[in-house]
Amino acid sequence: MVSIQARVCIRRLYHPGVPSTRLATKCCQGTQDFKGASFWNVRSFHVGKESLEDESKDNTTLVHFRESKTPHPLLAKPHQQGNAELSISLNHIWSEEEIQERLDNLYQHRPKSLTDKIMHRIMWSLYRSFNWVTGFKPVNTPVRAVEWRLIVLESFAGVPGFMAAMFRHFRCLRTLQRDHGWIHTLLEEAENERMHLLICMKMFKAGFVTRCLVIGAQVLMTPFLAAIYVVNPGAVHRFVGYLEETACLTYANIIHQVQTKGTPLNEAWAHLRAPGIAKAYWKLSEDAMWIDALKCMFADESNHRDVNHTFATMNSDDPNPFVSKHRKDAAVAWRLDSQGLSADVGCHKTLEVKKKE
Ligand SMILES: [Fe+2]
Ligand SMILES: [Fe+2]
């Protein structure tokens, strides 16, 4: 039997302008496949380029490729096709209540072992230096200081997860042994940080100095973390746990300032809409604001904090306790999408802003 994906691909050759969701629905009509298919099978159908940029294109009519202006589907590269799919994993869809609960409880791990204390000391030294370099202060922070801080922070935060996944992957290949489910969570974290960076880049640009800092942080910190990971993987997870604690503090502070009238961040950011890519990623409502995206970023960081502090306490051959959570998250995101619903993050505040406008 031809799979749903294969049928979608075949249809796409003839209807390049039609969104994936629609093709998938068409392909599944009259079959039992759609009901039987798990969300893993259909997850790629509804996170296409059209959902990131313009959901209104969903009304596209069926047009044969010969009559459309898009390049021939067999010759066109993915980005030249109107319905090119982006590979984005389905993130946890945060609710307003979950985010508020996490904002109210900024957990900080108390170092116990010598390794914990060393990692804690290194991380907080880096944090204070970073504050000094970026000119970050907790009150009335200049907008520019926050912008380049977020770009540097997010670009560096994507390193450890990917590096740890790489080490575990190679170890599996080398020792002919299984991974016990860690790699997926680590890659998911790396992708999540990369999405944070992409979302920030939609809101502000990186100058020359910021780009130098990004490169410097990657060049210096990657070998440092890799060297520690070879000897003591738990120490790196502990370090990342502390790094995420500082990220939580930063985001909580930024959210507070954006919501506090009279601050530079309130004036600059309170009225900004969330970019389309953020709305698609966290399933935010069409009216979502930039502050809603910041809240979701904060919640993601708190999740990284908890995951890494957990990994730090585990043996490397312990089964990953977060595997079932990924499945549940993907199911929730898929159901929201398939029912045309969105997360409740910031909805009432968004409405308040709309009324004043
Ligand atoms: Fe992040
Ligand atoms: Fe993070």
From TrEMBL:
The keyword Ligase does not apply. Belongs to the alternative oxidase family. Keywords: Electron transport, Iron, Membrane, Metal-binding, Oxidoreductase, Respiratory chain, Transmembrane, Transmembrane helix, Transport. It comes from Cladocopium goreaui. It is found in: Membrane. Signal peptide: none annotated. GO terms for cellular component: membrane; mitochondrion. InterPro entries: AOX, AOX_sf. The chain crosses the membrane at residues 208-231. The lineage of its organism: Eukaryota, Sar, Alveolata, Dinophyceae, Suessiales. This is Alternative oxidase, mitochondrial.
